[in-house]
Design goal:
- By secondary structure, the protein is an alpha+beta fold.
- The chain has four domains: 181 residues, Rossmann fold; 72 residues, no CATH class; 177 residues, no CATH class; 179 residues, no CATH class.
- The protein has 26 helices and 19 strands.
- Helix 5 packs parallel to helix 6, helix 13 crosses helix 17 and helix 23 runs antiparallel to helix 24.
- The protein is elongated, with a radius of gyration of 33 Å.
- The N and C termini lie far apart (80 Å).
């Protein structure tokens, strides 16, 4: 206790958060949410313009919420109202690059839910607190959701993930969302349940935090060069205050301060701390002032940065920057690029990629320092769709001989995003090679963003098959095989033929596919020539198989009675099932007596080089070894719906049935075997790729696919 004559001891000032450097008002609100204080909201929505510091604030807050990380922070030095209690860490699903559905499955995996549908995830999460498991979820960077920028995935995350989560009364939610979705996310919740923290709003302003940020960036102890206004503490403080004052407390202030200081430090020549006209008030002004200080027109800097602002994924391969900048600017940018690295240095960052299969020229990407820079650059492009179209044309020209198997990873996986931004994606979706080789999650997202009425037949086939491609993460060759089958199923044989020619290593060729409902089982068998009445059998040349006196290989499907082309097993029993008999090689229906069909014996099957095993939605085909246990997997057929029947002929034709129909696939390469039944169609050896030539559909057929060339997209 102090005596009346003693001055009271001054309260010790609290230190700012070591990572955030301020934002105490917002931290107090977040801490109240975490502590579940009376009157505190259950849902907190963090928002602000790009560059205001939402991500940094959330990262710093999560440091305090992590039991291990907070051990390295001097908590006693912080304002107690900004320190959340020591509780188990919340779930933090990173939505960057993910779809809404992928985000939900991340949550399901984190909590070990048994849900098999996304709709079941929310009620299961709601039940967890009843078992003593708290459900606290923090979702950062919703603005970066989605594998393709132009698909509007942040809106899907808000509407399909965050709003349903916020509606569950037992879930505490903190989400960082773009401003245009903040009010929408809060709508419909009872009063007091949700709070919006808009860092652009005056009540959340942090002018002292801006000064501290600028002062730290100018300090040589933290890497700044030794200059008169960085080594002198008073001069450094004065400059930090004026930089912060010009940046303001509104849109992009944190990013504006950071870029302004970096610009000054990278090129201090000619900078006058007393000249307020050299200090920016926005990210766009940083770009323009930086270019002017380097005696360059601001337009040149923006043209160099434009491809990075429009880039998909983590950034552009270095070798693509110059040609794409030239395409956007519609002039040769080579000289600008040669002397432009100092010009762009404050705004870009290298991204190193490691891993097998990444070519040397694709290991280093260039990206922007912050998404807010991209937004500022895009805002200055007068015709973004036109710029995207020119980028797409340049990327198409970078595909060697229009062979997507040889295309660079960025070109192959991201050209769809650029053509989507140009409004021209439907014109690209006629190339089966792109469907097979492009990364399926990104391509599917781009195609799904196109209005269905604008999609042609091949694009609709791809979209139908895409869930299978993304779910299985199949490699390119298997994707091509699944698409080849899908094209045959959808009556697009010319597109299947393109894949057979351009992907010679396909594990199978689809011989035929027939939509037949209700198939219970299938088998392969043989039919005496006298019992067959197949046009295709009569037309087959004798030299392509055993003598005409040999039995004909057939496919037999158990189908509902009354199926067109089928024959009842028992004519006098109306409840007896029927069978559909087809030529195994061509799929032609054969009018034959089912009792004449003979199944291949075990000995006949053993002469074939292949065997198979089946699960609910997959069939594995394996090559027999000399001894049991020496089998090697040849391929695996995967289905979006369960198989209802499977069989394999001695010469390697796989017959499968699902709820949608029956199809026959020639497994490749088939080894010679003792053929015991005649084929009406080509022998297995004839299933090799045809000579490379354009498909020739009938005049009324759909437009044949062609590799997109310079004329595939119009110039902007």
């Amino acid at each position: 206790m102090t005596s009346p004559t003693q001055a009271p001891e001054r309260a010790k000032a609290h230190q700012p958060h070591p990572y955030i450097g301020g934002r105490n008002a917002a931290l107090r609100a977040l801490t109240a949410w975490r502590m579940e204080r009376p009157g505190a909201p259950r849902v907190v929505i963090l928002t602000g313009s790009p560059g205001t510091g939402c991500s940094r604030l959330l990262t710093g807050f999560l440091m305090l919420c992590d039991p291990e990380h907070r051990k390295g922070i001097e908590l006693a030095a912080l304002d107690p109202a900004t320190v959340p209690p020591d509780l188990p860490a919340p779930a933090v699903p990173s939505v960057a690059g993910l779809t809404a559905a992928q985000t939900l499955w991340l949550l399901a995996d984190h909590y070990g839910l048994s849900a098999t549908r996304t709709a079941d995830i929310f009620p299961e999460l709601g039940q967890l607190p009843l078992s003593g498991r708290p459900v606290t979820i923090v979702v950062p960077d919703v603005d970066r959701a989605g594998p393709v920028r132009g698909t509007g995935e942040p809106a899907h995350v808000v509407r399909d993930v965050l709003k349903p989560l916020a509606a569950v009364e037992s879930i505490r939610l903190l989400a960082d969302v773009p401003r245009e979705f903040a009010v929408e996310l809060a709508e419909g919740l009872p009063p007091g349940v949700a709070q919006i923290i808009d860092l652009d709003a005056p009540e959340w302003a942090d002018p002292e935090g801006l000064v501290r940020q600028a002062e730290a960036l100018l300090n040589p102890q933290f890497g700044a060069p030794e200059l008169p206004f960085t080594t002198d503490p008073d001069a450094r403080r004065a400059l930090a205050e004026v930089i912060a004052r010009h940046a303001g407390d509104g849109a992009g202030s944190r990013l504006t301060v950071h870029l302004a200081v970096q610009s000054i430090l990278m090129h201090p020549e000619g900078f006058d701390p007393e000249d307020a006209s050299q200090l920016p008030g926005s990210v766009g002004e940083v770009l323009d002032l930086h270019a002017q200080r380097l005696d360059t027109h601001p337009r040149a800097l923006r043209q160099i940065l434009a491809p990075l602002a429009l880039a998909e994924g983590d950034g552009l391969p270095v070798h693509l920057l110059t040609p794409l900048a030239s395409a956007v600017a519609e002039r040769d940018m080579s000289e600008d690029m040669a002397r432009g690295m100092l010009l762009v240095a404050p705004f870009i960052r290298p991204v190193e990629r490691a891993g097998e299969g990444i070519p040397e020229d694709g290991r280093t990407l260039l990206g922007l320092q912050h998404p807010g820079i991209g937004e500022a650059v895009r805002a200055g492009i007068p015709d973004v769709p036109g710029a995207q179209a020119r980028i797409a044309m340049e990327l198409l020209e970078a595909v060697p001989h229009q062979d997507w198997a040889k295309a660079g990873a960025y070109v192959r996986d991201h050209i769809a995003g650029h053509t989507l931004g140009a409004g021209l994606l439907p014109r690209l979706l006629t190339d089966p090679g792109l469907f097979a080789h492009a990364e399926p999650v990104r391509l599917r997202a781009a195609v799904e963003a196109v209005p269905p009425e604008q999609l042609g037949a091949p694009a609709r086939t791809y979209l139908r098959t895409a869930p299978l491609l993304t779910r299985t993460q199949a490699p390119a060759t298997l994707r091509a095989a699944l698409l080849e089958t899908a094209f045959v199923e959808d009556g697009l044989p010319e597109y299947a033929a393109v894949l057979r020619r351009t992907v010679p290593e396909l594990p199978w060729h689809t011989l035929w596919s027939v939509p037949v409902a209700g198939v219970d089982a299938v088998t392969v068998g043989k039919l005496p020539p006298s019992a067959a009445a197949s046009d295709s059998a009569a037309e087959a040349p004798a030299k392509q198989g055993p003598p005409e006196s040999a039995p004909l290989a057939v496919a037999v499907s158990a189908v509902p009675r009354g199926t067109p082309g089928s024959s009842p097993l028992k004519a006098d029993d109306p409840k007896a099932p029927a069978v559909l008999v087809q030529d195994l090689a061509t799929g032609s229906v054969i009018d034959a007596d089912p009792t004449q069909i003979v199944r291949f014996s075990d000995d006949e099957r053993a002469t074939g080089p292949l065997g198979f095993s089946r699960g609910a939605d997959y069939v594995r085909v394996w090559r027999r070894g000399e001894q049991k246990g020496d089998e090697k997997i040849v391929t695996a057929l995967i289905s979006a719906t369960p198989f209802t029947g499977t069989d394999l002929s001695p010469d390697g034709i796989l017959l499968v049935a699902t709820e949608s129909g029956v199809k026959a696939l020639q497994i490749r390469p088939a080894q010679p075997c003792a053929t015991t039944a005649r084929r009406s169609g080509p022998a297995p050896q004839a299933a090799e790729p045809e000579p490379a030539r354009a498909p020739e559909p009938e005049p009324e057929a759909a437009l044949a696919p062609q590799a997109p060339g310079p004329d595939a997209l119009p110039t902007a």
